[in-house]
Amino acid sequence: MPIMSKICGITTPETLDAVIKGGASHVGFNFFDKSPRYISTDQANALVKCLPRHVTPVALVVDELPERIQEIRVQTGIHIVQLHGAETPAFAASLGGEIWKALPIKTAADLNEAKNFHGAVTRLLYDAKPPAGALLTGGTGCRFDWTLLEGVDHPVPWILAGGLDSANVAEAIRVSKTDFVDVSSGVESAQGIKDVDKIAAFLKATSQL
Questions:
Q1: Are 23 and 201 contacting, i.e. CB atoms less than 8 angstroms apart?
Q2: DSSP string spanning 97-149?
Q3: Which neighbouring-strand residues pair with 189?
Q4: Most exposed among 33, 38, 91, 151, judged by the fewest C-beta atoms under 10 Å?
Q5: Packing angle between helix 169-176 and helix 196-207, nearest 10 degrees?
Q6: Catalytic site residue 142?
Q7: Who's near 38: CB < 8 A, 6+ residues apart?
Q8: pLDDT values of the chain reduced to their tens digit, one per residue, 209 residues
Q9: Are 41 and 71 in contact (CB under 8 A)?
Q10: To 10 degrees, what angle do helices 13-22 and 196-207 make?
Q11: Alpha-carbon span 121 to 101, nearest angstrom
Q12: Residue 137: how many CB atoms within 10 A of its CB?
């Protein structure tokens, strides 16, 4: 089964070109204004217009108001919304359309929260739980123990994230049995600065599986 890949936190035409050429299935745009990967709706709209049909854009938001989420959808033309904060299942279900929800994982007990999102979201994204007091809820470069996913009955389709890079993504896929991976900091030369060579290397690693 082909591995799907999302490169998250794209902000420039050059890095978007690397995403497209590398064969990513999805690209993420970060609308959390405290993130070093933040992008405005106008900037995102310009990049989305450059996407071929086979690359799907995703809007990442953190504890946003429903009105703002709808505004992002309208102004960018992005239809998939990834919730990356403390959003509840009821909130996710109320938004309509295609909704993904990131769940911070550190222990097996954290995976129990997944069942609460059955029927409320289209996909779950298992990400590493950030350190206590961290400003960012994702893109920290942290990873969790992938063996926690062994034998888990996932309530909806899911994505693996958290500390992935070109060197470890093959092992992460082998252990977790995922068919969809998400990367942000693992393809950066500095926080918030995507590296076209690292993007290419990551996507090459996933395409060879």
A1: no
A2: SEEEEEEEESSGGGGGGGGGGTTT-SEEEEEEPPPTT-S-SS-S-----GGGG
A3: none
A4: 151
A5: 40
A6: no
A7: 11, 30, 31, 32
A8: 689 999 999 999 999 999 999 999 999 999 999 999 999 999 999 999 999 999 999 999 999 999 999 999 999 999 999 999 999 999 999 999 999 999 999 999 999 999 999 999 999 999 999 876 556 666 667 899 999 999 999 999 999 999 999 999 999 999 999 999 999 999 999 999 999 999 999 999 999 88
A9: yes
A10: 20
A11: 7
A12: 21
Q: 184: number of CA atoms within 13 Å, CB side?
A: 27
Which residue's entry shows tokens 């590296």?
195
Length of the chain: 209
Three-class HEC string of 10-54: CCCHHHHHHHHHHCCCEEEEECCCCCCCECCHHHHHHHHCCCCCC
Token pair in block for residue 178: 């995922």
Which of these is catalytic: 17, 42, 63, 127? 127
Nearest to 125 by CA among 94, 85, 77: 85
Q: In whole angstroms, what is the distance from residue 25 CA to residue 87 CA?
A: 25
Cβ–Cβ under 8 Å, residues 163 and 128: yes
Q: In this structure, are residues 45 and 13 in contact, taking their beta carbons and an 8 Å threshold?
A: no
